[in-house]
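Box 3.1. Reading complex inputs
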Amino acid sequence: MPEGSEPLLEVHDLVVRYGAATALDGVDLAVGRAEMVALVGPNGAGKTTLLDTVSGLVAPAAGRIELRGRLAQVPEGRRLFPEMTVEDNLRLGAWRVRDRRVGPVYELFPHLVELRRRKAGSLSCGEQQMVAVGRALMGQPDLLAVDELSLGLAPQIVDTLAEHLQDLNRRSGMAILLVEQNARLALDICSRAYVIEAGRIALSGPSEQLRSSPEVQAAYLGGAYEE
Amino acid sequence: MTLFLQYLAAGIASGSTFALVATGFVVIYRVTGVINFAQGVFAVLGGFLAYSLLHAGVAHGLAEGVAVLITAAIGLVVGLVALGRRGTPPLASLIVTLGLAIFSYAVVITVWGDLPISYDGLSGLLAIGGVSMQRQYVLIVGAAVVTFLALALFFGRTYLGMALTACSSDQRAARLMGIDVWRMGLLAFAVGGALGGLAGVLLTPLQPVQFDSDVGIAVNGFAAAIFGGLVRPVTAFAGGLVLGVAEAMVAGYYRSSYETAIALAVMLALMLWQASRRGPTEE
């Protein structure tokens, strides 16, 4: 984390077990206010487990989590309520807060205005991801955790959504933790990153530094990284 | 033809009570994944509570209303015991509800005795299209329809109802929104208790209830709920009506002792049909 940046989320020596299997083994991670941090790693490395533990869905076996603010998660696969309308999905995102006005989300994603009465299950994957991000934003988070933003989406849609997240981070100072298998995307838009493998943080540092790391290039970037 | 229409009217009335019980099954199952074997008990308790309140001099309408509220509270308690600690598996909760249903026999016998009870409902006959039917039938059907519409509005239009729907749609996503799925489960049990209680207070004037009447009520309600695969309230409601009419026809044209057998046969056939639609389990 950069010097002087107040930590919004700190994870210390986190251990999570599912029965006899250890999913996370001594994980340390921090996200500062207004930071964009990536967590990259292969399938089954423990990325979603880490998010779920920070979100309170999974109880850790050991370690400490300090969250100084509100966290909202955009889950992997979006997980909208398919029989509900777009607007009802958005409104449910505000369960923890009193303000249920959906206007700010429509300002961010104007395309959702015309879809607001449509059932969420009938939308395209890209539109559903907009709703999922919007629903998380309705919880007025200080930290937005996005699990697999790019999963199943066309590159053009991913670029648009990534721009929205960067814009959100720049304008409102909202911290973003981007959990991605697509390391190229994650390292492009985040200033810092962690690489998790088999439940342990294998590498961490500024994105630029990780991009030039031979291990990251070989394992996640398909060889030499090109701008 | 007149006889047929009278059987039809009686069937729709009893089917409406099955539909209420079935909707209770569905509401609880959708949110918690638990098949509540104590669902029939709510109807029995609703009948007994209304009986006691009426005998204590409470006016009709108020007595039944209070009885329904009490069964809602009983539903909440059943939910607390059955759901137990957060993370209790639905199968464990199901067995707890079965135990509570049996325990209720001891409670009912201790408080009210083991003889069947009944009380007067709406008296008199109503002639519609040349067919005479009891006013109580009309009350039952009307109350069931109003309740169902109110539930549809609650689940579709209110924020709390939408949260309940969210829990039944995707519990993980609901938890991420900050919705307490366990508390929503308790609310579902309370709604299930009220629906069962309402069925009981409406049915008791037509069919005396005793401590073990819950079995027949639950079997019919469950059979109706199975129509909608335990998750679709509208289909469960329709299932209750179909079952009620089928039973009334069998009782009218053949023997009333075959009523429950019909419900069980329908339930079995539907379960076999649904199992065949899923196809063979892959090894």
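In summary: The CA atoms of residues 26 and 37 of chain A lie 19 Å apart.
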